[in-house]
Amino acid sequence: MSVVTKADFAVRTGAELAGRTKTSVRLEFVPLRVRRGRLEIQVRPGDAGWRLWSFAPRADQLLTREAVRLAEGELGLPGNAVQLGAFGTPNSGLTAVFIHLVRPFEGKSPRPELTLRSSWKDIRGVQLAPEARLVVAHARARVEHDVEHGGAGFLLVGDEFTVSELRHVHEAARGIELDPSNFRKRVSRWVDEGVVVDIEKMRPTATRPARLYTVNSALVDVLQPGEAMTLKAFAGSGESG
Question: Which CATH superfamily is domain 3-129 in?
Fold first, then answer.
């Protein structure tokens, strides 16, 4: 499978992309969420393994806007669509791929027939169809990096979160265990730096109430669909753990 560079992909609409390459265009989604301590991907069954959902965009609309509309309207998944890249060839057709980060939410899909035909699987154990493996590998690497070094972790928890909830997201996305004490110190540094805000509320837990935090929206890059998952206050930071 060949890869189209981001520069090649930087066009306004599906019609323009098709016009430049004389080929068909589809949007493919890698929906990701954190549940039960693991990073999960939503997939649908196929003859050779689990496949990704893809849809044809409206030709006169921006691809990034179509990614949001299709993810929310067709898959019923509110979240943040982030451009990963484009795969394929002009002869076989181009597929624009979007990672879709899904926060915890309550509600039913507006397309229950699609929900019934799809499943959430552990991204590290799912048996993917051959054509999905490269795409998912790129998506997984991108999310692992951007959770550790950027703001993607905040897009996988609720608007209000505890230290433990955020740590579980980091552990699930990066596939490692983190020391709870060190991670709490890291969150405390974020509070001191103004990245994270202590909202002075508590959430009941099985042991003792846990303090609630939220990310400082003034410091987060405007995450328009297709933009990088970054946090301004993290620029140049190689901090981890």
Answer: Nucleoside Triphosphate Pyrophosphohydrolase (3.90.79.10)
